[in-house]
Amino acid sequence: xxxxxxFLQIFLxxxxxxxxxxxxxxxxIFGTSILLGLLPISLGGFGVRDYVIYYFLNSLGLSDxxxxxxxxxxxxxxxxxxxxxxxxxxxxxx
Length: 94
Known about the structure:
By secondary structure, the protein is mainly alpha-helical. The chain has one domain (2-93). The protein has helices at residues 2-17, 23-36, 46-59, 66-93. Helix 1 (2-17) crosses helix 2 (23-36), helix 1 packs across helix 4 (66-93) and helix 2 (23-36) runs antiparallel to helix 3.
């Protein structure tokens, strides 16, 4: 169920940006990048996932939107981290 929500979130972001990519290609590209990001060849898989997304989107001719999609894709991980750090710092001050 959580994977469905993750892919739905990615698909909605792609549609809001205006990228012409269907749900099946979205699940394939981002699912592959998440799975390959599990390989222990980088810190947290960040470089691996980004390269896989870049490779697939570039091969589909969607190079105009790659940078923006990668920013949003990584914000999914970094935004909750930032909120957690802020809450933790506020709790430490009290």
